[in-house]
Model the fold of this input.
Amino acid sequence: MSFRASILTLFPGMFPGPLGDSLAGRALREGRWSLEAIDIRGFATDRHRTVDDTPFGGGAGMVLRPDVVDAALAASQDGRPTIFLTPRGRPLTQGLVRDLAAGPGAVLLCGRYEGIDQRVIEARGLIEVSIGDYVLSGGELAALVLLDACARLLPGVMGAAESAAEESFAAGGQDHLLEYPHYTRPAEWQGRAVPAVLLSGHHAEVARWRRAEAERITKERRPDLWVRHCAAAAAMDGRPVPA
Ligand code: SAH
Done:
């Protein structure tokens, strides 16, 4: 069974959006994964198709009603992880993306307005995920980000399998490292030369240089990742060697 994404949204017209192009779009057309956008409004029960109401306790904005969202979830939950995109959630990481991409797919709930009634989040055991410390106007772009990251890891989607293994946040002891710099022809451009080691044809030295650059860049730009990288490396060294 290939990866199936179901998106619950008030704006189904936003899908597949940019995922219809390029790698993810080709993979969609090839049936390597599938995507359905489900209109939450279709689960409203009153004549006016109301999905939201004013917040108890007062304040600005509207809140999506638990009964309507619950009905939408009931129609699509089937054992796949069910994620509510929210700035309050656990940060989306490459580790989470890898886990999701290895599974059957996901049900993604997109909030709008002030968000969703807390009770349905708890009752349905939703996994709350954030794509970063900023506030979007809705969960749709966050869902597209999450799905783009998953789609490119699906079997047969990315051209060279090894390009996934080497890039930033790749698994295998470099989980927390940013990527090394890339160069292509011409070997000299505007007086800037490509680092000589990359022209040497010496694979071990190239690998060493790339590793050192990845470490230098991570240390400089993301001390938070560097600390995690060092901790992970230490834990790996301390691991008992299998007999
Ligand atoms: N009142 C909320 C923000 C609501 S934004 C708060 O202060 O936390 C409206 C919707 O956009 C949210 O329900 C959520 O689904 C989505 N959203 C906004 N920012 C997001 C982010 N960084 N990551 C994931 N989803 C986000």
Remarks:
- The chain has a mean pLDDT of 94.
